[in-house]
Design a protein that fits this description.
Largest sheet: 3 strands, antiparallel
Distance between the termini: 29 Å
Number of strands: 5
Shape: elongated
Number of helices: 2
Strand order of the largest sheet: 3-1-5
Radius of gyration: 13 Å
Strand content: 15-25%
Structural class: alpha+beta
Helix content: 25-40%
């Protein structure tokens, strides 16, 4: 599952294209879009989506997993600011 570490109105989702380009990317399910409110993830009902990774190399999957977790902290979402 993807994790939103903060809540806000989503401006863009720049991390989506980065995740889709990962070597082990297989499928992504998104529950949020630009212009929608995203709650901070506290359970499976507030998750912004899910990603499936598949590759013959465990190392590739682990690297891609780490990339996704880093993006969740900085780069997956761009939230609107108060002035926008």
């Amino acid at each position: 599952f993807l994790v939103a570490h903060e809540a806000g109105e989503v401006k863009t989702l720049p991390g989506v294209d980065i995740i889709r380009a990962l070597p082990s990317f297989a499928h992504m399910e998104l529950h949020c879009q630009a212009g929608q409110w995203q709650d901070k993830t506290v359970d499976c009902f507030t998750r912004p989506g899910a990603v499936q990774l598949v590759h013959e190399s465990e190392e590739v999957v682990n690297n891609d997993y780490d990339t996704i977790r880093a993006l969740e902290l900085d780069g997956f979402f761009e939230f609107k600011t108060v002035n926008e």
